[in-house]
Write a structure and sequence with these properties.
The complex is a heteropentamer, with 2 copies of chain A (341 residues), 2 copies of chain B (278 residues) and 1 copy of chain C (328 residues). Chain A is mainly alpha-helical and 341 residues long. In chain A, the strands form 2 sheets. In chain A, strands 1-4 form a two-stranded antiparallel ribbon. In chain A, a hairpin with a 2-residue loop joins strand 2 and strand 3. Chain B is globular, with a radius of gyration of 19 Å. Chain B starts with a helix and ends in a 13-residue tail after the last helix. Chain C has 10 helices and 13 strands. Classes of the chains: A mainly alpha (341), B alpha/beta (278), C alpha/beta (328). At the B-E interface, helix 7, helix 8 and helix 10 of B face helix 2, helix 7, helix 8 and helix 10 of E. Bound molecules: adenosine-5'-triphosphate (ATP) (2 copies) and magnesium ion (2 copies). The site of one magnesium ion has 4 residues of chain E, from helix 2. Chains A, D: InterPro entries: ABC_transp_permease.
């Protein structure tokens, strides 16, 4: 008995020190940064599509890919906040459409672009405020609230735009998000830069500010957070308002992409933004996840989409492939997490 | 304030109490859950610089009582006064701002956050300088260091990694995190609902020492516990709950542990003049 | 609630599409003129037949005299038969039903013909050069007849065999087109656009990544075309490729004038709606049912090709002429 | 002190016995049956729409309303099972389409209707099995799994149907769900009867069988349930399989409604079925709720829909009104629950 | 099996142990959480008809140890034998089917279900006759009645409504529900992780009586507790954990409470021949 007691600790130390092989060191890093495991999926996807279609990894193609995900990415950043609080925002795409319509229509009507932009963003923040108010003050489930406001924002968009697309003067400041900036050989649009800025700001705030801690705690266990002295109502409301701000920025980016506004733009963005967040490893039950993960998730979704298009897959099989790939991506992610356990 | 005084008063009986205003006073608290009676008209008086133990069988209403006092539940009837003024706590935050810090029996911790984040939840330390004031960055290293100190003070020596998520802690380690919070931030009143239930012998000793230290700093402490030796060793007065009602208030000097258990279980009833309401 | 005017139901595909908004507006004007009570309803998105079925039953329950419907799919047929059995006069607008006699009458653009117009135009404009084609369709996750009719119409106009009749993307990807002077063709991509600008832009960007030499772009509708133009312009290829599209809205005709769209097949939704409301109003007052276009089993409201760059041998309208009747 | 101690109990007894007024008795009943509080919302909606449009409460109109909700209702019954396990099924509508296409195409191709029906239902059960397998064995989040299978089922439907809607011989047994049965002055379709049967069977099983208890426990706290000795994997899988069965029955009902099968029929049903479940008071976090609530939830959704259409509201305002009504319905529900506290 | 026997053997020392095969035997259990050491090679032997107490400071690895024994966790190293045969429990259900019934420290109850449903979870009673066999209806009234009896047996008298959801119970009431499950359904081995932590004086007495009753029926019981008097009153042998390792096995006869606490905290180390491994 004392035998075991004296030999075993050594074997534990063995076990602990054996955990130092390069592979295990990678595992250790992965363990500390759960967002990195979707990253592996992303890299794998890039490599596979790069092999399948030669043009895929050219800087120009990649820069297009990033431009295409700027809208979904920005929305998904806001969606991450909501999902971290154990909520979900089904209205986010339509809120963006409403906001971009307001921007475009005001600018079209002759208002200075800058003012039109500000009012449009204010509308987006208001949509967030409405969702947040209904969730925190009336105490309704976010799913229902945003399902309801989805209809409301849709109707308002239709009534406001009368079903028309709105084209803004191409030189308007509103469309700056569509203009490019050359950095070396790649050109990046301002829209992409804004998206990156949103991720940096949110990532910083979630990690380093008290507000971020409170958001995680509220999503993790709202009752516990409340008992610990967090004004959970206020934290929730702030999450919706900041998400509204992201929506406003996404609306600006979409305006730059379409040269104005289009009431049809929002349909897919609700589900796409949620998909990006979930593939990025954020739990739908709240409290666990990060915006870095979301960024990677959005990139994965866009990579699949563009990669399949580039590979020239028959449109009927593309849908099939997308479904299979989404499941595979998350399976691999799950497997990486389990291995590193 | 000392036990001596309260024994003096005990002779005088329950009638008037001391001239001192209680820091916390509840009268006629009633709480019903549907047809289940949680509290059936309970009075409680807590004076600065004393440890008031609350004991009672399981389901006697101890937790319900302190939830009403700390704003976690609204009583159906009855009034609560702080420093003589009627208060109406809409939330635990209100109570906390009034100076009442509480550790609940079901440990209000955020499972996915690490120890330091939990300890400083809603009370984060900011970075010095512009990073803190403008960018509102929290000072993780400082919080981590102070957390380690708190935990060490409370005698937990087995904690191997201060960055562990609270959900991975052992039962006792988790409890210490919650207690350390209250100990570190309590201002006027500290309420502890069975803080030593999951603790080992030594750790229990440390927590009871913390309780006495708080009292010596002039705070008032409410301590719920099922451990009679601990209660009799630490409390100035003992509030006994029975079946949702108040069975009486005694002191360790005036009654024995056997008496306390007998009153708790209904084997013995307390005469009005036996009580020590102060 | 005490309204004795005859009831007319207008059931649209969706209301997010300006095309149907135009239809609705003209129907409302006509209803006011004819003194009928118009109830407008719509599916939530293209292909949403279930909601349309509900709306048909609602029209029956409300005791309307007739239904004007832009069908989202054949599965509404059973409900429409019940409506006819209940004495309602059913007119299909814009989209013929299959079989067409499910409706009492049909007022429609022939989407396939509209597609053929721009296909013929594209083939002629290529003038024998090899065609590198991007097909920007509506959906890839649902089947909608406008989508396939226009896509296949365009290919037929170009002189390319279409393969499967009811699905897009099954034609041979390389071969010889026979329209115009004829030549070799290559189909680079079929991408869904959701009929929206951003969808059109994403699709075009992806097609360009796959093959930067695209010179012919088919788009399902004008918003998708606008998106495609934005992508071409961003890539500096707006001169290399031309866009053909279908819709003929007043905004779209302006884009034809400015050269953004090489050609645009026009449609007349307002005309369909006005004719439909008037027909039912007449029947409700005991008049005779409306007739059909000679030689067709529906009333063809017509389509025309608008272009700023007419090519001999392809019949077309100038933008100015088209603007006079845009979506009338 | 002893004063209070002797008077207070009396006042507690007072409080307890005062709780006997008729209003409070209703509250008591509501408390015991949480599904009843959406019922109040439903009744209010029926009354309001009955006043607004005269025809609304006629037996014929009501019987139409119930026929229209038969498909959503049956799907929502299956969805309830999934949501009770803290999952969600985004693929349910497309699974139904796939199953109905199989039924219709086989029957169209000359197979005896009964056999075609059985094979179609088997396909539906297989879709559930696939979802359940991915959720329980590969341990993926249901949201992602069903998002992926949504695409897969969509693609399979499109490929299988070749983009055609399929019309079955009107006398086929497959279409029996669309045929009516006259009970007194109202006529009820077999589809409605099947839907009611599904609700009765599931309601009974959830309340009275061990399986039902295990399902609730698993959804409530899967870890606790596992530690208590429930084979949670098996329970989860069974929930998906039974949901698949409901999908099969819904496919049969939809076949009767459209006279065959339509590859686009599933578009809205995913979200609609979830909406019905949530409005019916089932928690998206699992473990709390009932199929009775879902039935009422589905009726509420359909009532709004038909009521607004019948009132002849402009479609733009219909969308707006639907959004507002959904939020109102759940607010009222929330309020009733709070009052009865 | 009686305490007398084990004292006899203690004299003989730790070397060989008895001829009897242990019902449960663990050798060299190691469990790591990342770089946190949960168990560093722990041995444990449990014989039929004995109560083995496991004590140790907070975070000493007690809960981790019993989780490995009951299939809730897989050890990284080491073997577990039941009745002499090596077993590999993939899940708690496997362990339960082998006859090990466990009450975990964090109480595995389904919060939204009522008491009877929780008590009979995964062991529901069916209705008699066709309703049960064909329609598989559970017999709620019977389960409710038996639940009431179990709870009453364990001395909880304050329970006002047997249909309460478990999440609305007081801390102690909830613990009793979990303990009652194990008591009612244990077959060979019953493991209790701090079963009396939240219990009152009287309720604790009832649970300890349950433990002795189970032993007297020939079952083996592992009891984790921080309450030394309870441990010394109830246990046949005492397994002391320290910093994830085994510090030694003693009996209430061979050592005093002070000794136990000293060994637990490392103030004293146990010589090999002082141990009582049986
Ligand atoms: N939310 C609730 N709903 C219904 N009954 C409740 C609720 N909360 C508490 N109760 C009941 O009220 C009574 C008092 O509970 P309380 O938690 O105050 O007891 P306690 O004295 O703290 O017991 P313990 O020592 O076990 O923690 C118990 O009978 C309990 O079942
Ligand atoms: N999932 C986990 N991840 C990381 N560390 C863990 C995990 N579970 C347990 N630990 C650590 O392992 C050690 C042993 O924990 P364990 O729960 O076994 O202690 P215990 O002896 O039961 O303590 P207590 O008396 O407080 O319940 C502790 O330091 C704990 O923090
Ligand atoms: Mg308590
Ligand atoms: Mg433990």
């Amino acid at each position: 008995m004392s035998q075991t007691a004296s030999t075993s600790p050594a074997s534990v130390e063995d076990l602990l020190s054996r955990r130092r092989s390069p592979a295990e060191r990678i595992q250790h890093v992965l363990h500390g940064n759960p967002a990195l495991s979707p990253l592996i999926v992303l890299i794998a996807a890039l490599i596979v599509f790069g092999i399948v279609s030669e043009g895929f990894l050219r800087p120009q193609a990649l820069s297009l890919l990033v431009q295409q995900m700027a809208v979904v990415g920005t929305l998904a950043a806001g969606q991450t906040l909501i999902i971290l609080t154990a909520g979900v925002d089904l209205s986010i795409g339509m809120a963006m459409v409403l906001s971009s319509l307001v921007m475009a229509k005001l600018a079209f009507g002759g208002m200075p672009s800058f003012l039109a932009l500000l009012i449009g963003i204010a509308v987006a923040v208001l949509t967030g405020l409405l969702n947040g108010f209904l969730v925190t003050k009336i105490n309704l489930p976010p799913f229902i609230v945003t399902l309801g406001t989805f209809s409301i924002f849709t109707a308002l968009s239709l009534l406001y735009a009368q079903g028309q697309t709105i084209a803004v003067n191409p030189n308007s400041f509103l469309l700056v998000t569509g203009r490019s900036l050359s950095i070396g050989s790649v050109s990046v649009t301002w829209g992409v830069i804004f998206m990156v800025a949103v991720f940096v700001a949110l990532g910083f705030a979630l990690r380093n500010s008290a507000w971020g801690r409170h958001l995680y705690a509220t999503g993790d266990d709202a009752d516990a957070a409340r008992l610990a002295g967090i004004r959970t109502g206020r934290v929730l409301l702030s999450a919706y308002v900041v998400a509204g701000l992201c929506v406003g920025i996404a609306a600006w980016i979409v305006a730059g992409r379409v040269g104005g506004a289009d009431p049809n733009a929002g349909l897919n963005y609700n589900l796409l933004s949620i998909t990006a967040v979930v593939i990025g490893g954020t739990s739908l039950f709240g409290g666990r996840g990060s915006v870095v993960g979301t960024l990677i998730g959005a990139l994965i979704v866009q990579t699949f989409n563009s990669g399949l298009a580039l590979a020239g897959v028959d449109p009927n099989y593309q849908v099939l492939a997308t479904g299979i790939l989404v499941i595979l991506a998350v399976s691999v992610d799950q497997w990486i997490r389990k291995v590193k356990g | 304030m000392t036990t001596a005084t309260s024994t003096d008063e005990q002779a005088g009986g329950n009638t008037a109490g001391s001239d001192e205003t209680p820091v916390l006073e509840a009268t006629g608290l009633v709480k019903l859950f549907g047809r289940v009676v949680g509290l059936r008209g309970v009075d409680l008086r807590l004076f600065p610089g004393e440890v008031l133990a609350v004991i009672g069988d399981n389901g006697a209403g101890k937790s319900t009582l302190i939830k009403c006092l700390s704003g976690a539940m609204a009583p159906d009837q009855g009034t609560i006064k702080m420093d003589g003024r009627v208060v109406n706590f809409g939330s635990t935050q209100d109570a906390r701002e009034a100076g009442i810090e509480t550790v609940y029996q079901n440990l209000a911790v955020a499972p996915a956050l690490d120890i330091a984040s939990n300890l400083f939840l809603a009370r984060e330390i900011r970075r010095p300088g512009i990073l803190g004031s403008v960018f509102r960055m929290v000072d993780r290293p400082a919080m981590r260091k102070q957390s380690k100190a708190f935990i060490d003070d409370l005698g937990i020596t087995t904690l191997q990694n201060i960055d562990q998520a609270v959900e991975t802690l052992s039962g006792g380690q988790r409890q210490i995190v919650a207690v350390a919070r209250a100990g570190a931030f309590g201002s006027k009143v500290v309420i502890l609902d069975e803080p030593t239930a999951a603790l080992g012998v030594r750790e229990t000793g440390h927590v009871l020492k913390l309780v006495r230290d708080l009292r010596d700093k002039g705070m008032a402490v409410i301590l719920i516990s099922h451990n009679m030796p601990n209660v009799f060793e630490t409390a100035d007065r003992i509030h006994i709950q029975r079946l949702g009602g108040l069975a009486g208030v005694i002191t360790p000097k005036s009654h024995s542990m056997e008496d306390a258990v007998a009153i708790m279980t209904g084997a013995k009833t307390l005469e009005p003049d036996e009580q020590t309401l102060r | 609630a005490n309204d004795n005017r005859p009831g007319v139901s207008l059931i649209l595909k969706t209301q997010t599409n300006p095309y149907f908004v135009a239809m609705k507006k003209d129907a409302e004007d006509e209803a006011a003129k004819q003194g009928v009570r118009l109830s407008v309803a719509a599916g939530t998105q293209d292909g949403d037949t279930q909601n349309q079925i509900n709306q048909i039953y609602t029209a029956i329950a409300r005791g309307d005299k007739g239904i004007l419907i832009t069908s989202n799919g054949d599965s509404i047929n059973a409900a429409l038969r019940q409506a006819k059995a209940a004495g309602l006069y059913v007119i299909a607008l814009d989209t013929p039903l299959i079989p067409p006699n499910t409706a009492d009458n049909t007022f429609a653009t022939d989407n396939r013909v509209a597609g053929q117009h721009i296909g013929q135009y594209a083939a002629a404009k290529l003038d024998g050069k090899p065609a590198v084609i991007a097909m920007l369709d509506l959906y890839n996750d649902q089947v909608v007849t406008v989508d396939t009719n226009r896509d296949h119409g365009f290919l037929q106009g170009m002189g390319i065999p279409t393969g499967n009749q009811s699905q897009n993307g099954l034609e041979p990807k390389k071969g010889h087109y026979t329209g115009g002077k004829g030549g070799s063709y290559q189909i680079v991509c079929h991408r869904p656009t959701q009929g929206a600008i951003d969808g059109g832009r994403q699709a075009m960007e992806q097609c360009l990544s796959a093959n930067p030499n695209i010179n012919v772009v088919y788009t399902i509708n004008e918003p998708a075309g606008e998106g495609a133009y934005a992508a071409l312009k961003a890539a500096g290829k707006q001169k290399q490729a031309f866009i053909v599209t279908i819709d003929g809205s007043c905004d779209g005709i302006n884009l034809v004038k400015s050269g953004e769209f090489a050609a645009d097949s026009t449609q007349y939704p307002g005309k369909m709606a006005r004719l439909g409301v008037a027909a039912i109003a007449k029947i409700a007052r005991g008049g005779p049912p409306p007739g059909k276009t000679a030689g067709k089993n529906f009333y063809d409201t017509g389509t025309a090709l608008a272009t700023n760059d007419p090519i001999p041998g392809v019949k077309s309208q100038t933008p100015a002429a088209a603007a006079k009747t845009c979506w009338g």
